[in-house]
Amino acid sequence: MKKILLVVVIIIFITLLLPLAIVWLIGGSGEGQSPIESGTVSVYVSEEDCVKDMDINEYLKCVVAAEMPADFEEEALKAQAVAARTYLYSHIAEKDKGNIAESHNGAVICTDSTHCQAYISEDKRRESWGAGADENWNKISTAVDETTGQIMTYNDEIISAVFHSTSSGITESAVDVWGADVPYLQSVASAGDEESPKYHSELTLSEQEFKNIAEEKIDGVDWNNGLVSNINRSNAGGIVTLDVGGVNIKGTEFRNIFSLRSTNVEISQENGDIKMSVKGFGHGVGMSQYGADYLARQGKTYKEILKTYYTGVEIENR
User: Fold this and answer.
1) So what's the pLDDT on residue 168?
2) d(CA 150, CA 131)
3) What does the angle CA 174 – CA 178 – CA 181 come to, to the nearest 5 degrees?
4) Helix or strand holding residue 140 (H, E)
């Protein structure tokens, strides 16, 4: 009888428990381990004009190192790590659907910060940090490692976790900036942004300089219709549309034409000059990085920070 029981126990172990033990040993026992996280991702390195396969964890550390100052609070760095991972995973999901940006040369994502996420290699970042390199890299590594596998979703779909440097105190909604109403990218209050060194900037041009730049970039301007008029603003204060020389253009286009830090611009004429006073830095949609650091300094966790900026999202392990 004992022999029969022993045989039964061995059979149960082989058929049920052994496979689970193997999975545990291979995948790790920690919560949040992700099959994507442990693999590699193809990255188009814009500066070198080549595609490289990178370890996902190391890629994310290089993104966080490029996107956010290492002296920011740990919870802000964790929020950035989750946002960066979510942004990457959304690109992986798009590639699985066959949607790849032509500029990526077949890769999932690129290192051009104007198109995807900023990226800097560990060696280059360590060189720029100097004596504090080890401490800074360990801090960023911890932020990525301690949020391993965590991403943001809305209605069980991976979100497009866009972010920017500094808002004007209120973030912009996606519909006002890009024309698409995205439920989790709504305009929200962003405390502490005014403490950012990038909060305020100015550009002053002579009237002729202003006209020259506009004429080069905008077809059909007629200064008989005035310089700037019919300014339409979002609730956050960013310019949605305006007329320049009688030609209606988007605020994002105006920002690009004059290389301004954001679309939140007050335009005035003083002594024959055109003065443009700007609040914020970046497109203004999603998480404000300086706002995130401020919230972290107020004791907010990274999950609380993320849910402040991305309306109605869930944070889950994939």
Assistant:
1) 96
2) 31
3) 45
4) helix 133-145
Tell which residue, 309, 232, 292, 291, has the closest CA to residue 265: 232
Residue found under tokens 């972290």: 296
Nearest to 244 by CA among 219, 277, 269, 261: 219
In the sheet that holds 157-158, the strands lie side by side as: 157-158, 150-154, 314-317
Token pair belonging to 262 = 């954001």
What letter would DSSP give residue 12? H
Task: Find all residues with CB under 8 Å of 175, minimum gap 6, and list them.
Answer: 181, 182
Residue 245 token pair: 């020389």
Per-residue pLDDT tens digits for 133-157: 999 999 999 999 999 999 999 999 9
| Half-sphere exposure (Cβ direction) of 39: Cα atoms closer than 13 Å | 8
Task: Report how far residue 152's alpha carbon sits from residue 317's, in angstroms, rounded to the nearest whole number.
Answer: 9
Q: Count of residues for the chain? A: 318
